[in-house]
Request: fold
Amino acid sequence: MKRSILLSIVFFLSCFAGLAAPQQAPEGVNPKGIVESAGISGVDAGEISEDLRNAIHQLTGKPYDQNAADELIVRIQAESPAFTAAARLAPGSDCNSVKLLFVIQKQGAGPHAEANVNSRYTVERVDIEGADHPKLHQTIQDEMQKLVGEKLDQDKADQILHEISRQLQPSYTVKKKVTKGSDPQHVVLIYEIQKARLIPQLDIPPDRVVYHSKQNFSLDPSLPIDMGQNNRILLGFADDQDALLERFAGFSFGYENTKVGTDHLGVALRYARYHERWQPSTVLADRNSIDRERNTFDPSITFGFDPRLRLTAGLSLSGMQIQYPAIHDANAGAVTASLNFHNVWADAAQDRHKVEAGYDFRAGNHELDSDFIYTRHVLHAQYVYGQNKNQLSFSFIGGHLSGNAPMFERFSLGNTDTLRGWNKFDIAPAGGNRMLYGSVQYGFGKPSIGQFNINTDQGIHVGQIRSGFHIFYDVGAVGNSGMPIIARHSAGFGIGGHTFFMELGFPIRSSRVEPVFTTGFRF
Reply:
C-alpha cells in the first residue's frame, strides 16, 4: 500500500514538473534553426488579417526567434479575440532548419468566452501610421484616446476603424492592427492609413475552372509574375467553352503597368492565340462565320479618376482563319473603350453595400484594315447588400450589336454565369445582336465544408472551403433584330461564394424540365 502511494506521489510530481517546465522543442528539432516555412493551421487564412499573414510569412528564411513568435501570438489573439494561438515547431528538410506552424483555435462556445479573451490585454497607446492624410475629426481622436489604459475592446476599435474609413474614403484605405506592448499584458493599437491606388489592377478576366453539365469542363487559368510594385507579366492558357459560343483553346501572355509616370495612368499589352471548335448546331445556324484560328493583340491605356472610377481605351486587332466556304484569312480590327465604376461602403458595422457598373464599346472600322464593320455596346451593373451573414444581389446586363461582327463578338446566354439552368446552344446557337439579362440572388450563412493544405515556398497555408447557401432567379433574352426574341426564365439553388460554387439550375418552360448542374472555382 505504501509503495502504491509513493508511486502515485512520484507520478503526480513528475506530471506537475512537466507542466511547469518551459516548453521544449520536439525531439529532432533545432530551436535555433532557420525557418524553412511558416504558416497557420486551424482556421481559414482569410480570417487572419493580411498584415498578420505577411508577418508570419516574413519569418521564412530567418533564424527562429521565440520573441518574434510570441509577439505574433499576441497580435493574433488581440486582433481576433475569439481565437487562441500557439507556435509549434517541426523538423525541417535538414538538421539546421525548422518548420514553424501557428496553430489557431476558436474559443469555447461559452457566452463570455470572447469577453474573457478581451480582458487579457490593456491598450498601452493608440498610434496612426502611414501616408500623409487629412487631419481626423476631433471626435475620432477623442474616441481613440479613450481606449488607452482600458482593456482592448474590439467592438469599439472596429467602430473607430469604420469612422476613419468613412471620413477618408475613397482617397485612403485604413487597416487596424495590434502589436505587442512594453510588457506581455499590454498591446499597441495601430490604425494604418495608406493612400488608395487609383488603378489597383487593370481589367483581367478571372481565372476559373468550371463544369457545366451540358457544356462540359472549361478552364482559363493564368500565372501573374510580379516585376515590381506596379509591373507584372501574365502567362495563361485556356480550353474554354463557357465564355463564348466556340470552345477556344490556346495560350496568352501580356504585360501591365499600373503607374506610368503618374498614379492616374496605366498601360496593358496582351496577346492571345486560340484554336476554335464549334458545336454542330452553331455551324448549321451560320456556316460562313466559322473561324478555326484566331490571333489577337490588345493594347490599352487606363486612366483612373479616383479609386472608384476609371476609363480604359485601346485597340483589339485580330487575325482569323475563316473555314467556310473555303479557307481564307480575315481581319477584325476594333477601337475599344470602357468606363467602370466600383464602390464598397458600410452604413454600420454589419451593413455592407457594393455597387459595380460599367459601359463597354467596341467598333470595327476600315481604318484598322478590318473586314468586319460593326459597333457593339454593353451596359452592366450589380448591387449587393450584405448584413451579417445575409446577402442580397441584383445584376443586369444589356447589349446591342449592329453591322457585320465576328462570331466572338455576338451575345449569348446560358452558361455558368447567366441564365443558370439553360444551355446556350438551345437558346441561340449562333448568338444574337440583342441581349437583356437580369438576376436576383439571396444567400445566407458561411458554413465550412472542408479543409485543405497548400504547401508553398512561403509556408503551409491552411484554408477552408467556405460556402453559404443561396437561391436565385434569372431572366434573359437574346436574339437578332427583326426576329421574335423570347424571354427565358430559370430558378435554382446552390452553395458557394466568390471563389467556390456549386449550383443546380432549373429552366422554366412548359415542356420537359432538365436541370443543369454547374460547379467550379473562380479566382
